[in-house]
Amino acid sequence: MKVGMAGELLFFEWMSELKGRLSQLAPEIEWIHAPSAGAGQQLLIDADSCYPFKQMVRSSVSLLSDVDVLLAPRIIAMDGFLVCPNFRALPDIVLMNRARLGLNKETHVFTPVVDIDQGHQLEKLAAGIYRDMFGKDPMSCGEKNFSADGQSMAMKDRDLSKSIALIGHPYVLEDSCLNNGVPDILRLNGIDIVYAQWIDFNELSNLAASFDYYAKRLYWRSARELLGAFIYFSRIRPAAGIIHLAPFNCGIDALMRVELTGLRKRMADAPPYMVVVCDEHTQRDHVVTRLEAFLDIVNGVKIK
Amino acid sequence: MASKSNEIFLGIDVGSVSTKMVVLDADSLSMLDSLYVRTYGDPQASMRAAMIRLSNRQPLPVVRTAATTGSGRTLAGRLINTNIIKNEITTHTLAAVKIMPEVRTIVEIGGQDSKIIIVRDGMAVDFAMNTVCAAGTGSFLDQQSGRLGIRVEDMGEIALSSNNPASISGRCTVFAETDMIHKQQIGAPMNDIVAGLCRALVKNYLASVARGKPITPPVVFQGGVAANKGIVREFQEQTGCEIHVSPYYGVAGAYGAALLASMVKTEQPAFQGLELSGKEHRIKSFVCKKCEESCSVLMLYRDGALLSYWNDRCGRYSSGEVTYNPLVTTGEK
């Protein structure tokens, strides 16, 4: 059975875990994450949403032609914190576009609700999806131990003092189409990069809580991730510099870039911090200029 | 006075609107010459103009080291054969720190971009540049002065003669133009409109480019727009800081590049800029199919001989790892 899920979603650790769990339950699943064609279709997503989200819709709709079953999850919350509300609408927008474009009505579209905090909830979610797909209960294949992955463990031993830390939404950090190639440009300049996603979310969330100076608790998952990662890379294990990759100036990123800038001002000896708003750059050279200047700041270029 | 050896450091800033060149004496670092010409979308031609100016100096100077900056810095670097190719934020910082070591804020407004650089102890520590909006740049003033039928060079003096700047939106060139037309239609004096335009540009800059950045004195103002006294007055009024206009404001990027050239101690390839005026230079391109990046790789030919590659993201061609073979690679233009 060919099962499709937009590759961009897999950058969320929970979604990657979900895929892994489903593969354990049904080894016959052949996963497809990148559509073979149709990426140029005009979709009904001209509303005020960011490019990464549009890309997820585009990937999902285009996958309809390639798969037997499409997984278009309705993601509400992960780790007990809310995800951008656009993600709740993903299945609706995919189905709306399928109807409008008259695409593969035979392809089943599963739209499970993702609201998970604990490993056992993921087990339940995977079992429910299996049941819907195969019409029977899954065989038990034992409890999976959810723990920090190798990357996260390796972080503990790394010297970050010469590294540039990248913070932001996981799908922006990982996908070169969405991040203007920033990680690649840094690597070409010989820079060691560390990602916020390499640190366990609970650790980031706890760090965010230690700086909770808002009237309300920060309830957006990405906001806690950003704040926690900023504190981690500026205070707990300082990096040489921090670059915040924001898709566009939407609510959470717009708020956090201001908050992090303010927080940095109040810190003594905080590492250089720069925001790159990916949607604002159409030319790679514009990004290169900013990165070069940022690296000069990190390296303390001074007139002699 | 040139150095006894007649050696110079050269800085070239190829911007989207103008190309600037600065010649420094290699011993004293004093400025021997500077040039400001319009790029007119043809950086090769503006570079050639700069090199003709350089070759006309008597006696012919010996370029010890050259550096390029600006949005056309990579092309310029290839044309003159230098490896010192630096972003404009760093070169503007070097230029400002040289003329005022205690500078803490640099305001730079050029033809199509504007930036703020925060400096501490002679080093840049933070910066911001405009991105999708050119409302607060020299082009905006150029465009509006043309529409008002005045020379952009005269805008500053005209603005200073007004004590009642008209209220004009600076958020967007379209809205600004609408507001200016409205003020003209109701009979507002020209000087009030021009002063209002200056006020709008500064408001736009402070609200967008400089948003969240601490503007603390001393403030140095660089870039072509620093010539406009109306803008300088507005910066002073809106920030409450004294604004120091760099004596080299129009060529500050090139000045910084020349200073950077003077700091480099490693051996550099032979300067070949003067050959720009006498030999045929052509740029060709091909699309590399090695990976999904599909880079449009550029190649510089001088008198038919291939000199260098650039614009390949992985450095496969520019590093000399491989050479272009039209039988293997398709897409040459």
UniProtKB/TrEMBL annotation, chain A:
Residue ranges constituting the DUF2229 domain according to the UniProt record: 40-197
Pfam family, one: DUF2229
InterPro entries: CoA_activase_DUF2229
Identification of the protein by name: DUF2229 domain-containing protein
Source organism: uncultured Desulfobacterium sp
UniProtKB/TrEMBL annotation, chain B:
Key words, A-Z: Iron, Iron-sulfur, Metal-binding
UniProt keyword Metal-binding, yes or no: yes
Signal peptide: none
Pfam families the UniProt entry points to: BcrAD_BadFG
Cofactor(s) named in the record: [4Fe-4S] cluster
Database matches in InterPro entries: ATPase_BadF, ATPase_NBD, CoA_E_activase_dom, Dehydratase_Activator_Redct
Residues annotated as transmembrane: none
Entry keyword ATP-binding: no
All residue ranges annotated as the ATPase BadF/BadG/BcrA/BcrD type domain in the record: 10-261
Domain of life of the organism encoding this protein: Bacteria
GO MF annotation list: iron-sulfur cluster binding; metal ion binding
NCBIfam families linked: CoA_E_activ (TIGR00241)
Name of protein: CoA-substrate-specific enzyme activase
Upper classification of the organism: Bacteria, Pseudomonadati, Thermodesulfobacteriota, Desulfobacteria, Desulfobacterales
